[in-house]
Amino acid sequence: MYALNFKPSRYGIDHSLIFVAMPFDDKYDYIFNDLIMPATNLANTKLGYKDDLSLRPYRTKDDIRTTSGWINILDHLFTAQIVMGVLTGKNQNVFYELGIAHATQQITRQILISEKRDTASFDTKDLIYLGYNKKNVTESIEPLANKIVDAIETYNLEKENIVKKARGSVGTSGFAAIMTWGKQRNFAVHTADLKDDLRNGLDILCQQGLLYLNTISKRDGDVYNIEFSYWWTGIGNDVLRLLEIITKEELIERRKVLPIY
After folding, report:
1. Phi then psi for 223, rounded to 5 degrees?
2. What pLDDT is attached to residue 23?
3. CA distance linking residue 151 with residue 140, whole number of Å
4. What whole-number distance in Å separates Cα of residue 113 and Cα of residue 127?
């Protein structure tokens, strides 16, 4: 599976996921267990995240050379809230995964770490955000937690600006569609049966990235019927929350289940 042609199994960002790209070898387990895990727990405390909002680090040991393993890795690269790359050992697979992340995801949602004694490669020397001491990784727990917090807060600030801009761009037709379907996490409609303002509103919301449109072709004898179904995207749900169409609890519930392509 070539990354350019890859389509994640689900649409949107898993707000609780930190995907850790790192070598499979067991000798690197201490980085995940003794540094990344406690740093994530500390970040959750600093952010006030509990239960359903808590960030969780995930490390796959799937073989990148197998189709299923590679698809699993790509799925997490494209949907994780944060991609954390461990450059220790200069593993070629890790660099390949991070190359995909750099080309497809905002750099503000990525954190790179490496052992302090490692000499940075030319292309990554300005991207290593944290160097840790192998002999005392605990001293790097709080600095790494702060990097995680910074990444989340930067993303939230960027998202807030996007949400405000989107809210001001939907127009009266978009608002009509929001008021009609905002209470539903996803919905199906026959657009031909809609009034012009609602049909136009759906188009506007899709163009603004607030709605994701999925079409399904169904055959009834010799006739093909196309069903249109819509999912509110991550930004769409944030707009609904800003407008108080949905509650904070509903927003959290919607974030748990990313729409399936």
Report:
1. -110, 130
2. 92
3. 17
4. 9
Dihedral of the CA atoms 110, 111, 114, 120 (nearest 10)?
60
Structure tokens at 200: 């136009």
The pLDDT assigned to 252 comes to 85
pTM of the model: 0.81
CA distance 103 to 14: 19
pLDDT of residue 138: 95
Among the residues of 28-184, which ranges form H helices? 29-30, 37-47, 67-79, 92-104, 141-167, 171-181
Amino acid sitting at position 142? E
- The CA distance from 21 to 141, in Å, is 18
Amino acid code (one letter) for 243: L
pLDDT in tens, 118-159: 666 656 666 768 999 999 999 999 999 999 999 999 988 888
φ, ψ (nearest 5 deg) of residue 188: -120, 140
Residue carrying structure tokens 């989340």? 152
How far apart, in whole angstroms, are the C-alpha atoms of residue 100 and residue 97?
5
